[in-house]
Protein backbone atom coordinates (compact mmCIF):
# COMPACT_ATOMS: atom_id res chain seq x y z
CA UNK A 1 0.00 0.00 0.00
CA UNK A 2 1.24 3.46 -0.90
CA UNK A 3 0.56 5.79 1.99
CA UNK A 4 0.05 9.53 2.05
CA UNK A 5 3.49 9.73 3.64
CA UNK A 6 5.06 7.86 0.69
CA UNK A 7 3.46 10.37 -1.68
CA UNK A 8 4.84 13.24 0.40
CA UNK A 9 8.29 11.70 0.20
CA UNK A 10 8.08 11.25 -3.59
CA UNK A 11 6.73 14.77 -4.08
CA UNK A 12 9.60 16.07 -2.00
CA UNK A 13 12.16 14.21 -4.13
CA UNK A 14 10.44 15.43 -7.32
CA UNK A 15 10.15 19.02 -6.04
CA UNK A 16 6.39 19.31 -6.47
CA UNK A 17 4.08 20.89 -3.92
CA UNK A 18 0.82 19.00 -3.45
CA UNK A 19 -2.38 19.86 -1.63
CA UNK A 20 -3.73 17.44 0.99
CA UNK A 21 -6.62 16.41 -1.27
CA UNK A 22 -4.20 15.68 -4.08
CA UNK A 23 -2.05 13.48 -1.84
CA UNK A 24 -5.03 11.25 -1.03
CA UNK A 25 -6.02 10.93 -4.68
CA UNK A 26 -2.45 10.28 -5.79
CA UNK A 27 -1.91 7.58 -3.17
CA UNK A 28 -4.93 5.75 -4.60
CA UNK A 29 -3.82 6.25 -8.23
CA UNK A 30 -0.19 5.28 -7.66
CA UNK A 31 -1.38 2.22 -5.77
CA UNK A 32 -3.61 0.95 -8.58
CA UNK A 33 -1.05 1.77 -11.30
CA UNK A 34 1.79 0.05 -9.44
CA UNK A 35 -0.46 -2.97 -8.84
CA UNK A 36 -0.91 -3.13 -12.62
CA UNK A 37 2.74 -2.68 -13.64
CA UNK A 38 3.81 -5.16 -10.96
CA UNK A 39 3.14 -7.85 -13.60
CA UNK A 40 6.71 -7.08 -14.68
CA UNK A 41 7.85 -9.18 -11.73
CA UNK A 42 6.73 -12.36 -13.52
CA UNK A 43 8.30 -11.45 -16.89
CA UNK A 44 10.67 -14.32 -17.83
CA UNK A 45 13.74 -12.15 -18.41
CA UNK A 46 16.20 -14.96 -17.56
CA UNK A 47 19.69 -13.81 -18.51
CA UNK A 48 18.47 -10.87 -20.58
CA UNK A 49 20.09 -7.56 -19.78
CA UNK A 50 19.13 -4.06 -20.86
CA UNK A 51 20.89 -3.21 -24.12
CA UNK A 52 21.12 -0.19 -26.39
CA UNK A 53 19.73 -0.32 -29.93
CA UNK A 54 21.66 -0.45 -33.20
CA UNK A 55 23.02 3.08 -32.76
CA UNK A 56 25.19 3.61 -29.69
CA UNK A 57 28.17 5.55 -28.35
CA UNK A 58 27.82 8.31 -30.92
CA UNK A 59 30.48 10.98 -30.51
CA UNK A 60 31.03 14.31 -32.16
CA UNK A 61 33.55 17.11 -31.84
CA UNK A 62 32.66 19.69 -29.23
CA UNK A 63 32.67 22.72 -31.48
CA UNK A 64 31.87 26.22 -30.28
CA UNK A 65 29.15 27.68 -32.48
CA UNK A 66 28.88 31.43 -32.86
CA UNK A 67 25.43 32.56 -31.77
CA UNK A 68 24.07 35.85 -33.01
CA UNK A 69 23.30 38.57 -30.47
CA UNK A 70 19.68 38.31 -31.53
CA UNK A 71 19.57 34.59 -30.73
CA UNK A 72 21.31 35.19 -27.42
CA UNK A 73 18.63 37.76 -26.58
CA UNK A 74 15.89 35.31 -27.58
CA UNK A 75 17.23 32.81 -25.06
CA UNK A 76 17.66 35.36 -22.29
CA UNK A 77 14.17 36.73 -22.99
CA UNK A 78 12.77 33.37 -21.89
CA UNK A 79 14.36 33.62 -18.45
CA UNK A 80 11.63 34.39 -15.88
CA UNK A 81 13.88 36.75 -13.88
CA UNK A 82 16.78 38.44 -15.52
CA UNK A 83 19.32 40.98 -14.33
CA UNK A 84 21.27 42.28 -17.30
CA UNK A 85 22.82 39.24 -18.91
CA UNK A 86 22.41 37.13 -15.76
CA UNK A 87 19.69 34.70 -14.70
CA UNK A 88 18.42 35.95 -11.35
CA UNK A 89 17.58 33.52 -8.53
CA UNK A 90 16.96 33.92 -4.83
CA UNK A 91 19.86 33.88 -2.41
CA UNK A 92 21.29 30.38 -2.03
CA UNK A 93 23.45 30.99 1.06
CA UNK A 94 21.74 32.57 4.04
CA UNK B 1 -11.25 27.73 -58.41
CA UNK B 2 -13.09 26.24 -55.44
CA UNK B 3 -10.71 24.00 -53.50
CA UNK B 4 -12.27 20.87 -51.96
CA UNK B 5 -10.24 20.62 -48.78
CA UNK B 6 -11.69 17.29 -47.67
CA UNK B 7 -10.41 15.45 -50.74
CA UNK B 8 -7.30 17.50 -51.44
CA UNK B 9 -3.97 15.64 -51.27
CA UNK B 10 -0.36 16.84 -51.52
CA UNK B 11 -0.09 15.55 -55.10
CA UNK B 12 -3.33 17.23 -56.20
CA UNK B 13 -2.38 20.51 -54.52
CA UNK B 14 1.11 20.34 -56.02
CA UNK B 15 -0.32 19.80 -59.49
CA UNK B 16 -2.68 22.75 -59.12
CA UNK B 17 0.08 25.00 -57.79
CA UNK B 18 2.37 24.05 -60.68
CA UNK B 19 -0.38 24.50 -63.26
CA UNK B 20 -1.36 27.78 -61.66
CA UNK B 21 -4.97 26.69 -60.98
CA UNK B 22 -4.59 28.29 -57.57
CA UNK B 23 -1.75 29.99 -55.71
CA UNK B 24 -0.23 29.09 -52.38
CA UNK B 25 -1.91 32.21 -50.99
CA UNK B 26 -5.32 30.95 -52.23
CA UNK B 27 -4.63 27.61 -50.63
CA UNK B 28 -3.48 29.07 -47.32
CA UNK B 29 -6.53 31.38 -47.25
CA UNK B 30 -8.84 28.41 -47.82
CA UNK B 31 -7.36 26.67 -44.77
CA UNK B 32 -7.46 29.81 -42.64
CA UNK B 33 -11.17 30.18 -43.51
CA UNK B 34 -11.80 26.55 -42.63
CA UNK B 35 -10.07 27.01 -39.28
CA UNK B 36 -12.23 30.07 -38.60
CA UNK B 37 -15.33 28.01 -39.37
CA UNK B 38 -14.47 24.80 -37.53
CA UNK B 39 -11.87 25.37 -34.85
CA UNK B 40 -14.23 26.97 -32.34
CA UNK B 41 -16.10 23.70 -32.03
CA UNK B 42 -13.29 21.18 -32.60
CA UNK B 43 -10.46 23.05 -30.82
CA UNK B 44 -7.78 21.26 -32.81
CA UNK B 45 -5.53 24.31 -33.33
CA UNK B 46 -4.17 26.18 -30.32
CA UNK B 47 -2.85 29.02 -32.46
CA UNK B 48 -2.75 30.09 -36.06
CA UNK B 49 0.62 31.71 -36.84
CA UNK B 50 0.27 35.32 -37.92
CA UNK B 51 2.75 35.07 -40.79
CA UNK B 52 0.89 32.36 -42.74
CA UNK B 53 0.13 34.58 -45.72
CA UNK B 54 3.70 35.92 -45.77
CA UNK B 55 5.00 32.36 -45.85
CA UNK B 56 2.55 31.60 -48.66
CA UNK B 57 3.63 34.65 -50.66
CA UNK B 58 7.25 33.54 -50.35
CA UNK B 59 6.31 30.07 -51.58
CA UNK B 60 4.46 31.59 -54.55
CA UNK B 61 7.54 33.62 -55.42
CA UNK B 62 9.77 30.57 -55.14
CA UNK B 63 7.40 28.55 -57.36
CA UNK B 64 7.37 31.32 -59.97
CA UNK B 65 11.17 31.54 -59.92
CA UNK B 66 11.62 27.78 -60.27
CA UNK B 67 9.09 27.69 -63.12
CA UNK B 68 10.97 30.44 -64.92
CA UNK B 69 14.23 28.55 -64.58
CA UNK B 70 12.41 25.36 -65.66
CA UNK B 71 13.55 23.66 -62.48
CA UNK B 72 11.66 21.02 -60.53
CA UNK B 73 9.32 22.36 -57.84
CA UNK B 74 9.56 20.42 -54.54
CA UNK B 75 6.38 18.42 -53.78
CA UNK B 76 5.95 20.14 -50.42
CA UNK B 77 6.43 23.70 -51.67
CA UNK B 78 3.44 25.74 -50.52
CA UNK B 79 1.84 22.76 -48.75
CA UNK B 80 0.13 23.88 -45.50
CA UNK B 81 1.25 21.94 -42.41
CA UNK B 82 -0.14 21.98 -38.89
CA UNK B 83 2.51 21.37 -36.24
CA UNK B 84 2.07 19.62 -32.90
CA UNK B 85 2.61 22.02 -30.01
CA UNK B 86 5.75 20.19 -28.78
CA UNK B 87 7.82 20.90 -31.91
CA UNK B 88 9.86 24.10 -31.94
CA UNK B 89 9.31 26.78 -34.59
CA UNK B 90 11.70 29.66 -33.96
CA UNK B 91 9.96 32.74 -32.58
CA UNK B 92 6.59 31.00 -32.18
CA UNK B 93 5.01 29.82 -28.95
CA UNK B 94 5.54 26.12 -28.21
CA UNK B 95 3.77 25.04 -25.03
CA UNK B 96 3.32 21.25 -25.17
CA UNK B 97 -0.22 22.17 -24.11
CA UNK B 98 1.13 22.91 -20.64
CA UNK B 99 0.65 25.92 -18.37
CA UNK B 100 4.34 25.76 -17.52
CA UNK B 101 5.23 26.81 -21.09
CA UNK B 102 2.19 28.99 -21.79
CA UNK B 103 4.31 31.97 -22.86
CA UNK B 104 7.40 30.13 -24.04
CA UNK B 105 8.69 31.18 -27.45
CA UNK B 106 10.97 28.73 -29.25
CA UNK B 107 14.52 30.00 -29.64
CA UNK B 108 15.43 27.78 -32.59
CA UNK B 109 13.86 25.64 -35.32
CA UNK B 110 13.50 21.89 -34.90
CA UNK B 111 15.37 19.96 -37.60
CA UNK B 112 12.04 18.78 -39.08
CA UNK B 113 10.89 22.39 -39.31
CA UNK B 114 14.10 23.41 -41.08
CA UNK B 115 13.61 20.56 -43.51
CA UNK B 116 9.97 21.41 -44.22
CA UNK B 117 10.26 25.17 -44.37
CA UNK B 118 13.78 25.98 -45.54
CA UNK B 119 14.53 22.95 -47.73
CA UNK B 120 11.04 22.37 -49.12
CA UNK B 121 9.15 25.66 -48.85
CA UNK B 122 6.22 24.24 -46.88
CA UNK B 123 3.84 26.67 -45.14
CA UNK B 124 3.33 26.28 -41.38
CA UNK B 125 -0.19 27.33 -40.47
CA UNK B 126 -0.23 26.84 -36.72
CA UNK B 127 0.23 24.62 -33.71
CA UNK B 128 -2.12 21.84 -32.67
CA UNK B 129 -3.53 20.67 -29.37
CA UNK B 130 -2.19 17.63 -27.53
CA UNK B 131 -2.09 15.92 -24.16
CA UNK B 132 0.24 17.91 -21.91
CA UNK B 133 3.86 16.95 -22.65
CA UNK B 134 2.56 13.99 -24.67
CA UNK B 135 1.09 12.14 -21.70
CA UNK B 136 -2.33 10.67 -22.36
CA UNK B 137 -4.37 9.06 -25.07
CA UNK B 138 -7.29 11.40 -25.68
CA UNK B 139 -6.08 15.04 -25.75
CA UNK B 140 -8.15 15.48 -22.57
CA UNK B 141 -4.93 16.23 -20.65
CA UNK B 142 -4.34 19.50 -22.52
CA UNK B 143 -4.17 22.50 -20.21
CA UNK B 144 -6.14 24.37 -22.90
CA UNK B 145 -9.21 22.14 -23.21
CA UNK B 146 -10.06 18.97 -25.07
CA UNK B 147 -10.07 18.60 -28.86
CA UNK B 148 -13.23 17.04 -30.28
CA UNK B 149 -13.39 14.24 -32.81
CA UNK B 150 -14.59 15.63 -36.18
CA UNK B 151 -16.58 12.42 -36.80
CA UNK B 152 -18.55 12.76 -33.55
CA UNK B 153 -17.96 15.80 -31.37
CA UNK B 154 -19.03 13.98 -28.19
CA UNK B 155 -15.94 11.81 -28.59
CA UNK B 156 -12.20 12.26 -28.16
CA UNK B 157 -9.90 12.53 -31.19
CA UNK B 158 -7.38 10.25 -29.48
CA UNK B 159 -4.02 11.40 -28.30
CA UNK B 160 -1.57 12.64 -27.74
CA UNK B 161 -1.40 14.15 -31.26
CA UNK B 162 -5.20 14.59 -31.23
CA UNK B 163 -5.11 18.17 -32.51
CA UNK B 164 -2.97 17.25 -35.53
CA UNK B 165 -5.18 14.27 -36.44
CA UNK B 166 -8.42 16.24 -35.99
CA UNK B 167 -7.05 19.18 -38.02
CA UNK B 168 -6.19 16.93 -40.98
CA UNK B 169 -9.46 14.95 -40.74
CA UNK B 170 -11.59 18.12 -40.68
CA UNK B 171 -9.75 19.90 -43.49
CA UNK B 172 -8.20 22.57 -41.26
CA UNK B 173 -4.73 21.53 -42.45
CA UNK B 174 -3.70 19.55 -45.49
CA UNK B 175 -1.18 17.53 -43.47
CA UNK B 176 0.43 17.65 -40.03
CA UNK B 177 3.33 16.57 -37.92
CA UNK B 178 2.81 14.68 -34.70
CA UNK B 179 5.04 12.85 -32.28
CA UNK B 180 4.64 9.26 -31.12
CA UNK B 181 5.83 7.97 -27.75
CA UNK B 182 3.45 5.02 -27.28
CA UNK B 183 0.94 5.44 -30.09
CA UNK B 184 0.46 9.20 -30.07
CA UNK B 185 0.46 9.50 -33.88
CA UNK B 186 -1.22 6.19 -34.72
CA UNK B 187 -4.11 6.03 -32.23
CA UNK B 188 -5.48 9.54 -32.98
CA UNK B 189 -5.04 8.76 -36.70
CA UNK B 190 -7.18 5.65 -36.18
CA UNK B 191 -9.81 7.59 -34.21
CA UNK B 192 -9.98 10.42 -36.78
CA UNK B 193 -9.81 8.30 -39.95
CA UNK B 194 -6.41 9.50 -41.21
CA UNK B 195 -3.03 7.91 -41.87
CA UNK B 196 -0.30 8.15 -39.23
CA UNK B 197 3.28 6.89 -39.29
CA UNK B 198 5.59 6.23 -36.35
CA UNK B 199 8.94 5.92 -38.15
CA UNK B 200 11.78 3.62 -37.08
CA UNK B 201 13.43 4.96 -33.91
CA UNK B 202 16.19 7.25 -35.14
CA UNK B 203 14.80 7.71 -38.67
CA UNK B 204 13.66 11.29 -38.00
CA UNK B 205 15.66 13.79 -35.93
CA UNK B 206 14.10 14.84 -32.62
CA UNK B 207 16.25 17.97 -32.35
CA UNK B 208 13.68 20.58 -31.35
CA UNK B 209 11.06 18.09 -30.18
CA UNK B 210 10.32 18.42 -26.46
CA UNK B 211 11.46 15.17 -24.92
CA UNK B 212 8.81 13.00 -23.25
CA UNK B 213 10.31 9.49 -23.21
CA UNK B 214 13.64 9.80 -24.97
CA UNK B 215 14.05 6.11 -25.77
CA UNK B 216 10.57 6.00 -27.41
CA UNK B 217 9.90 9.41 -29.01
CA UNK B 218 9.70 9.81 -32.79
CA UNK B 219 8.27 12.57 -34.99
CA UNK B 220 6.06 11.44 -37.87
CA UNK B 221 3.51 12.55 -40.44
CA UNK B 222 -0.30 12.57 -40.26
CA UNK B 223 -2.13 12.78 -43.61
CA UNK B 224 -5.28 11.61 -45.40
CA UNK B 225 -3.47 9.07 -47.60
CA UNK B 226 -0.50 6.71 -47.31
CA UNK B 227 1.14 8.33 -50.33
CA UNK B 228 1.24 11.69 -48.55
CA UNK B 229 2.68 10.20 -45.37
CA UNK B 230 5.39 8.71 -47.59
CA UNK B 231 6.19 12.07 -49.24
CA UNK B 232 6.50 13.76 -45.84
CA UNK B 233 8.55 10.93 -44.34
CA UNK B 234 10.97 11.14 -47.27
CA UNK B 235 11.33 14.88 -46.69
CA UNK B 236 11.95 14.78 -42.93
CA UNK B 237 14.04 11.66 -42.31
CA UNK B 238 17.82 11.45 -42.24
CA UNK B 239 20.84 11.61 -40.00
CA UNK B 240 21.29 14.76 -37.94
CA UNK B 241 24.38 15.66 -35.91
CA UNK B 242 22.06 17.29 -33.40
CA UNK B 243 20.29 14.00 -32.57
CA UNK B 244 22.79 11.23 -31.88
CA UNK B 245 20.09 8.55 -32.16
CA UNK B 246 19.54 9.23 -35.88
CA UNK B 247 21.00 6.61 -38.21
CA UNK B 248 22.57 6.23 -41.64
CA UNK B 249 20.98 4.38 -44.52
CA UNK B 250 23.55 1.62 -43.93
CA UNK B 251 22.44 0.98 -40.33
CA UNK B 252 19.50 -1.22 -41.28
CA UNK B 253 19.28 -3.20 -44.47
CA UNK B 254 15.80 -4.71 -44.30
CA UNK B 255 15.32 -7.69 -46.62
CA UNK B 256 11.78 -8.53 -47.62
CA UNK B 257 10.91 -12.25 -47.78
CA UNK B 258 7.63 -12.16 -49.75
CA UNK B 259 8.41 -12.42 -53.46
CA UNK B 260 5.46 -10.62 -55.07
CA UNK B 261 3.80 -9.15 -52.00
CA UNK B 262 5.01 -8.82 -48.41
CA UNK B 263 4.03 -11.71 -46.11
CA UNK B 264 1.58 -10.70 -43.37
CA UNK B 265 1.92 -12.13 -39.85
CA UNK B 266 -0.99 -12.15 -37.42
CA UNK B 267 -0.28 -12.58 -33.69
CA UNK B 268 -3.62 -14.22 -32.85
CA UNK B 269 -3.03 -14.93 -29.18
CA UNK B 270 -1.77 -11.35 -28.63
CA UNK B 271 -4.93 -10.01 -30.27
CA UNK B 272 -6.91 -11.98 -27.68
CA UNK B 273 -5.32 -9.91 -24.89
CA UNK B 274 -6.53 -6.61 -26.26
CA UNK B 275 -10.22 -6.73 -25.30
CA UNK B 276 -11.04 -5.78 -28.89
CA UNK B 277 -14.43 -4.22 -29.67
CA UNK B 278 -16.65 -6.17 -32.10
CA UNK B 279 -16.52 -3.35 -34.65
CA UNK B 280 -12.72 -3.41 -34.65
CA UNK B 281 -12.69 -7.21 -34.92
CA UNK B 282 -14.91 -6.97 -37.97
CA UNK B 283 -12.65 -4.46 -39.73
CA UNK B 284 -9.63 -6.57 -38.84
CA UNK B 285 -11.21 -9.64 -40.47
CA UNK B 286 -12.17 -7.60 -43.53
CA UNK B 287 -8.59 -6.32 -43.81
CA UNK B 288 -7.23 -9.84 -43.55
CA UNK B 289 -9.58 -10.88 -46.37
CA UNK B 290 -8.61 -7.87 -48.45
CA UNK B 291 -4.93 -8.72 -48.14
CA UNK B 292 -5.65 -12.36 -49.09
CA UNK B 293 -7.69 -11.36 -52.13
CA UNK B 294 -4.79 -9.22 -53.31
CA UNK B 295 -2.42 -12.14 -53.23
CA UNK B 296 -0.78 -11.58 -49.86
CA UNK B 297 0.27 -14.67 -47.95
CA UNK B 298 -0.96 -14.67 -44.33
CA UNK B 299 0.85 -16.53 -41.54
CA UNK B 300 0.10 -16.95 -37.86
CA UNK B 301 2.87 -15.77 -35.56
CA UNK B 302 3.49 -15.75 -31.82
CA UNK B 303 4.67 -12.77 -29.81
CA UNK B 304 4.50 -14.22 -26.28
CA UNK B 305 6.48 -11.47 -24.50
CA UNK B 306 3.91 -8.92 -25.69
CA UNK B 307 1.85 -10.00 -22.69
CA UNK B 308 4.24 -7.77 -20.69
CA UNK B 309 4.33 -4.90 -23.19
CA UNK B 310 2.14 -2.47 -21.24
CA UNK B 311 3.78 -2.84 -17.81
CA UNK B 312 7.23 -2.63 -19.46
CA UNK B 313 6.17 0.39 -21.48
CA UNK B 314 4.71 2.29 -18.55
CA UNK B 315 7.60 1.66 -16.17
CA UNK B 316 10.07 3.04 -18.72
CA UNK B 317 7.65 5.84 -19.60
CA UNK B 318 7.31 6.99 -15.96
CA UNK B 319 11.05 6.76 -15.33
CA UNK B 320 12.15 8.73 -18.37
CA UNK B 321 9.37 11.28 -17.95
CA UNK B 322 10.36 12.02 -14.38
CA UNK B 323 13.91 12.65 -15.62
CA UNK B 324 12.89 14.74 -18.61
CA UNK B 325 10.47 16.89 -16.61
CA UNK B 326 13.21 17.78 -14.12
CA UNK B 327 14.36 20.57 -16.44
CA UNK B 328 11.27 22.64 -15.64
CA UNK B 329 12.49 24.57 -12.64
CA UNK B 330 11.02 28.06 -13.06
CA UNK B 331 14.54 29.44 -13.48
CA UNK B 332 15.76 28.99 -17.06
CA UNK B 333 12.47 29.38 -18.94
CA UNK B 334 8.77 28.83 -18.54
CA UNK B 335 6.47 29.65 -15.67
CA UNK B 336 7.95 30.91 -12.41
CA UNK B 337 5.99 30.95 -9.17
CA UNK B 338 7.53 32.55 -6.11
CA UNK B 339 8.20 30.46 -3.01
CA UNK B 340 9.82 31.25 0.33
CA UNK B 341 13.35 30.54 -0.86
CA UNK B 342 15.16 29.28 -3.94
CA UNK B 343 14.29 25.59 -3.39
CA UNK B 344 10.70 26.49 -2.56
CA UNK B 345 10.58 28.29 -5.93
CA UNK B 346 10.92 24.88 -7.61
CA UNK B 347 8.07 23.44 -5.55
CA UNK B 348 5.84 26.40 -6.29
CA UNK B 349 6.66 26.64 -10.01
CA UNK B 350 6.22 22.93 -10.69
CA UNK B 351 2.97 22.83 -8.69
CA UNK B 352 1.57 25.80 -10.60
CA UNK B 353 2.77 24.67 -14.02
CA UNK B 354 2.18 20.92 -14.32
CA UNK B 355 -1.23 19.30 -14.82
CA UNK B 356 -2.39 16.27 -12.87
CA UNK B 357 -1.31 13.51 -15.28
CA UNK B 358 2.18 15.02 -15.55
CA UNK B 359 2.48 15.18 -11.76
CA UNK B 360 1.21 11.64 -11.41
CA UNK B 361 3.80 10.31 -13.85
CA UNK B 362 6.64 12.31 -12.30
CA UNK B 363 5.80 10.73 -8.94
CA UNK B 364 5.49 7.26 -10.46
CA UNK B 365 8.83 7.71 -12.22
CA UNK B 366 10.43 8.94 -9.03
CA UNK B 367 9.06 5.83 -7.32
CA UNK B 368 10.31 3.26 -9.86
CA UNK B 369 13.75 4.90 -10.00
CA UNK B 370 14.13 5.32 -6.27
CA UNK B 371 16.85 3.51 -4.39
CA UNK B 372 15.86 -0.11 -3.73
CA UNK B 373 13.30 -0.24 -6.56
CA UNK B 374 15.54 0.39 -9.57
CA UNK B 375 16.38 -3.31 -10.17
CA UNK B 376 12.80 -4.48 -9.67
CA UNK B 377 11.32 -1.98 -12.12
CA UNK B 378 13.49 0.05 -14.50
CA UNK B 379 16.25 -2.54 -14.96
CA UNK B 380 13.78 -5.39 -15.29
CA UNK B 381 11.58 -3.44 -17.72
CA UNK B 382 14.56 -2.73 -19.97
CA UNK B 383 15.57 -6.39 -19.92
CA UNK B 384 11.99 -7.40 -20.78
CA UNK B 385 12.06 -4.82 -23.54
CA UNK B 386 14.75 -6.92 -25.24
CA UNK B 387 12.61 -10.01 -24.82
CA UNK B 388 9.77 -8.27 -26.67
CA UNK B 389 12.14 -7.00 -29.39
CA UNK B 390 13.56 -10.51 -29.87
CA UNK B 391 10.05 -11.92 -30.40
CA UNK B 392 9.48 -9.42 -33.22
CA UNK B 393 12.88 -10.05 -34.80
CA UNK B 394 12.14 -13.77 -34.74
CA UNK B 395 8.71 -13.16 -36.30
CA UNK B 396 10.38 -11.18 -39.09
CA UNK B 397 12.31 -14.31 -40.06
CA UNK B 398 9.08 -15.60 -41.60
CA UNK B 399 6.91 -12.52 -42.24
CA UNK B 400 7.39 -8.95 -43.53
CA UNK B 401 4.56 -7.19 -41.74
CA UNK B 402 2.79 -7.71 -38.42
CA UNK B 403 -0.91 -6.82 -38.66
CA UNK B 404 -2.97 -5.73 -35.64
CA UNK B 405 -5.69 -3.16 -35.04
CA UNK B 406 -4.26 0.25 -34.08
CA UNK B 407 -6.51 0.55 -31.01
CA UNK B 408 -8.85 -1.91 -29.30
CA UNK B 409 -11.88 0.35 -29.89
CA UNK B 410 -13.05 3.27 -32.02
CA UNK B 411 -12.99 6.76 -30.45
CA UNK B 412 -14.47 6.77 -26.96
CA UNK B 413 -16.62 9.41 -25.30
CA UNK B 414 -15.08 12.52 -23.77
CA UNK B 415 -14.76 11.86 -20.03
CA UNK B 416 -15.31 8.11 -20.35
CA UNK B 417 -11.83 7.13 -19.15
CA UNK B 418 -10.53 10.18 -17.30
CA UNK B 419 -11.38 8.87 -13.83
CA UNK B 420 -9.37 5.66 -14.23
CA UNK B 421 -5.74 6.09 -15.34
CA UNK B 422 -5.22 2.33 -15.80
CA UNK B 423 -8.20 2.11 -18.20
CA UNK B 424 -6.62 4.91 -20.25
CA UNK B 425 -3.26 3.11 -20.29
CA UNK B 426 -4.88 -0.10 -21.61
CA UNK B 427 -5.82 1.83 -24.77
CA UNK B 428 -2.17 1.59 -25.84
CA UNK B 429 -1.94 -2.22 -25.92
CA UNK B 430 -1.31 -2.51 -29.68
CA UNK B 431 0.75 0.64 -30.22
CA UNK B 432 3.41 0.56 -27.47
CA UNK B 433 5.30 -2.39 -28.96
CA UNK B 434 6.58 -0.29 -31.89
CA UNK B 435 8.07 2.17 -29.40
CA UNK B 436 9.52 -0.56 -27.18
CA UNK B 437 11.20 -2.21 -30.17
CA UNK B 438 11.97 0.88 -32.28
CA UNK B 439 10.12 -0.70 -35.23
CA UNK B 440 8.23 1.49 -37.72
CA UNK B 441 4.42 1.25 -37.63
CA UNK B 442 1.68 2.73 -39.77
CA UNK B 443 -1.99 3.24 -38.96
CA UNK B 444 -4.23 3.10 -42.03
CA UNK B 445 -7.98 3.86 -42.09
CA UNK B 446 -9.53 0.50 -43.00
CA UNK B 447 -13.20 0.64 -42.01
CA UNK B 448 -15.92 2.11 -39.83
CA UNK B 449 -18.08 1.40 -36.79
CA UNK B 450 -21.74 2.32 -36.63
CA UNK B 451 -22.62 4.64 -33.76
CA UNK B 452 -25.54 3.62 -31.56
CA UNK B 453 -28.12 6.03 -30.22
CA UNK B 454 -27.37 9.06 -32.37
CA UNK B 455 -29.92 11.90 -32.45
CA UNK B 456 -32.04 11.88 -35.63
CA UNK B 457 -30.11 14.76 -37.22
CA UNK B 458 -26.85 12.85 -37.08
CA UNK B 459 -28.05 9.39 -38.11
CA UNK B 460 -25.70 7.53 -40.44
CA UNK B 461 -22.55 9.01 -38.91
CA UNK B 462 -19.77 6.49 -38.49
CA UNK B 463 -16.54 6.20 -36.52
CA UNK B 464 -13.35 5.39 -38.41
CA UNK B 465 -11.19 2.40 -37.48
CA UNK B 466 -7.51 2.06 -38.32
CA UNK B 467 -5.38 -1.01 -38.82
CA UNK B 468 -1.74 -1.06 -37.81
CA UNK B 469 1.09 -2.46 -39.89
CA UNK B 470 4.50 -2.97 -38.27
CA UNK B 471 7.65 -3.75 -40.28
CA UNK B 472 11.38 -4.35 -39.80
CA UNK B 473 13.68 -1.56 -38.66
CA UNK B 474 14.23 0.82 -41.56
CA UNK B 475 11.51 -0.76 -43.71
CA UNK B 476 8.96 2.04 -43.98
CA UNK B 477 8.83 1.28 -47.74
CA UNK B 478 7.04 -2.03 -47.09
CA UNK B 479 4.54 -0.27 -44.81
CA UNK B 480 3.75 2.27 -47.53
CA UNK B 481 3.28 -0.31 -50.28
CA UNK B 482 1.00 -2.56 -48.17
CA UNK B 483 -0.80 0.43 -46.65
CA UNK B 484 -1.72 1.70 -50.11
CA UNK B 485 -3.31 -1.66 -50.88
CA UNK B 486 -5.77 -1.52 -47.98
CA UNK B 487 -6.43 2.18 -47.40
CA UNK B 488 -9.92 3.50 -48.01
CA UNK B 489 -8.52 6.77 -49.41
CA UNK B 490 -10.22 10.14 -49.86
Please give a structural write-up.
Chain A contains 3 helices and 2 strands; from the N terminus they run αααββ. With 94 residues, chain A is mostly helical. Chain A has a two-stranded antiparallel sheet. In chain A, α1 (4-13) crosses α2. Chain A is flat, with a radius of gyration of 23 Å. The mean pLDDT of chain A is 93. By secondary structure, chain B is an alpha/beta fold. Chain B has a single domain, classed as Amidase signature (AS) enzymes (Alpha-Beta Complex), CATH 3.90.1300. Chain B has 16 helices and 11 strands. Chain B has helices at 10-19, 24-42, 52-68, 111-119, 162-169, 186-192, 226-236, 268-273, 278-293, 309-324, 342-353, 356-369, 375-395, 421-426, 432-437, 476-486, and strands spanning 45-48, 80-84, 123-128, 175-180, 195-198, 218-223, 264-266, 298-300, 401-405, 441-450, 462-470. In chain B, β2 (80-84), α4 and β3 form a beta-alpha-beta unit. Chain B is globular, with a radius of gyration of 22 Å. Chain B starts with 9 loop residues before the first helix and ends with a helix. At the A-B interface, α1, α2 and α3 of A face α10, α11, α12, α13 and α14 of B.
